[in-house]
Design brief:
CATH topology: VC0467-like
Shape: globular
Distance between the termini: 45 Å
Low-confidence stretches: none
CATH class: Alpha Beta
CATH architecture: 3-Layer(aba) Sandwich
């Protein structure tokens, strides 16, 4: 098997031609990517469900909007917490209750007591479900042009306007990808 270069901590931005409705204009933060597969969360799919409705003890630590996000089509009955550590890299080694994903972005153990992590966490988002790919599956989709891979920024996790994240991430690229941000929702209407 060929060695896989890790994309952990990067964003997958759905190409306009991606046909899967689960990922239409999706921005996925990759939490894990190696030869065994990939796992990420869709950052721009807020639901109408409030965090207080399902994880009341974590509600005070979540940013606006204080709702659960649909992290992907897999295991919608499970929850993942993704947070940003203020001041960049945070303490080293990581405190109990969270695992660094990339830079200031970390995965939070939602079974840990929130008060144990409150002082260390900046913004927190709760995701129901995740996006997953088996070994080599994501690489095939990348080769087919289904996704653009770009660097993440800590603000992507806590974007106050997640519905605009697809365009915003593309617009900040210093390449031809910035032009794709203007791609119409329905090209047939042009």
């Amino acid at each position: 098997m060929t060695e896989v270069s890790s994309l952990t901590g990067r964003l997958l931005v759905a190409a306009p031609a991606l046909a899967d409705p689960n990922f239409d204009r999706a921005v996925v933060l990759l939490l894990d990517h190696d030869e065994e597969g990939s796992l990420g969360v869709v950052l721009n799919r807020p639901t109408p469900v409030g965090v207080a409705d399902i994880l009341a003890s974590w509600a005070g630590l979540t940013g606006e909007p204080g709702v659960v996000f649909q992290g992907g089509p897999v295991s919608l009955d499970s929850a993942l917490g993704v947070a940003v550590i203020p001041g960049g890299e945070g303490p080293s080694p990581a405190p109990i209750g969270w695992r660094r994903v990339h830079g200031a972005i970390c995965l939070v153990d939602l079974d840990a007591p929130p008060e144990l992590l409150a002082a260390a966490l900046g913004s927190l988002r709760i995701f129901a479900g995740y996006a997953g790919w088996g070994p080599g599956q994501l690489e095939t989709e990348l080769a087919d042009g289904a996704w653009y891979v770009v660097e993440s920024e800590p603000g992507d996790v806590s974007s106050p306007r997640p519905e605009n994240l697809w365009r915003a991430v593309l617009r900040r690229q210093r390449s031809e990808l910035a032009m794709i941000a203007t791609y119409p929702d329905d090209p047939s209407l042009n």
